[in-house]
Amino acid sequence: MTTDSSTAEVSEEPGRAEDRQGIDEIHILWISEGMSCDGDTVSLTAAGQPSIEDLVLGLIPGLPKVNLVNKVLSPSLGGEDFLAPYRAAVRGDLTTPFILVIEGSIPNQNIIEGDGYWTSFGNDPETGEPQTLNWWIDQLAPKAWAVVAAGTCATFGGIHAMAGNPTGCMGLADYLGWDFTSQGGLPVVNVPGCPIQPENFMETLIWVLYHAAGSAPPPPLDHMLRPQWLFGKTVHEGCDRGSYYEQASFAKDYNSPKCLVKTGCWGPVVNCNVPKRGWMAGIGGCPNVGGICIGCTMPGFPDAFMPFMDEPPGGTLSSLAIKPYGAVVRRLRGLTNELVNHEPKWRHNKRKLTSGYDPHWRP
Ligand code: SF4
Ligand code: SF4
Ligand code: SF4
Question: To bridge 97 with a disulfide, which of 61, 109, 145, 215 should be the other Cys (CB 3.0-4.6 Å)?
Fold first, then answer.
């Protein structure tokens, strides 16, 4: 399906590592049957730069042709019609390489082996038995050109994997191994968020697709396999309320424009760009609009950030340390602000010019 000699090989053996250059058509096989609320799929529909429509209609120059298969967005009525491309990929019959996207956390089937299942995706055509998410991942991940985890559940386990859970849930890299490598030579690509910020996910997907087309290097990922350019900064570094923090102006309740650290915001230690980017189309962004950051993008979420709405332990110390500095800075800025809030005295409508203009000035 590609335009050079490597393309023919891709058609015969979709997704081989040595064929990573020049893929011009690709499937995205999206499975949201992890322990999931489908919120990441819903969130993705809000992407606008580019939108899903731009992607599937081929409006983005230089990308491979994309065949997106997602149950919410599928025109099929479901059942075997919907499952056909997944089954073809399991058999190795899919006509193009594919990217496997998993949404939701991965339960541990081993702890109940032979005694039911935690979550499934279709039924075995021969036995009629449910086919577990784990079975699909085992079948598809080794054949996939790239494997992408969408949302905090799929990346690190998320809410379903908190202490005391009965399912033994985990993230995709915990399941496949953090050293997993796809047919395209990539590790699992993690895009956390509960749900994903739609442009974050779309940007990452576009980078992977340009890489598949042979026109971009692999996406740079950090030690938790997150895109570095999206998760390299903290919430605090992008928060509209940062200046309140610096001036030690802290909110005591939620009906305040001041810094929310004392009402439970973990922003200073959380990697997330949502305050800069907004939830969708630049709108919202947790602390910017009054919501404390509870660390939903983080590997330790939710346990490390509970109980929510209590002041984080580090927040007590840092807000105490900044108090004397903040009080002085706030006062000095107040004085300067008062000063620059007046017009100069030479702006008037009297008969005499007092601006300092010298009509006899010579060079
Ligand atoms: Fe739902 Fe959040 Fe899990 Fe996504 S990460 S499936 S939005 S609970
Ligand atoms: Fe930092 Fe949170 Fe305060 Fe914003 S509200 S400045 S992220 S502590
Ligand atoms: Fe999650 Fe905090 Fe980012 Fe909001 S700001 S999306 S709570 S990590």
Answer: 145
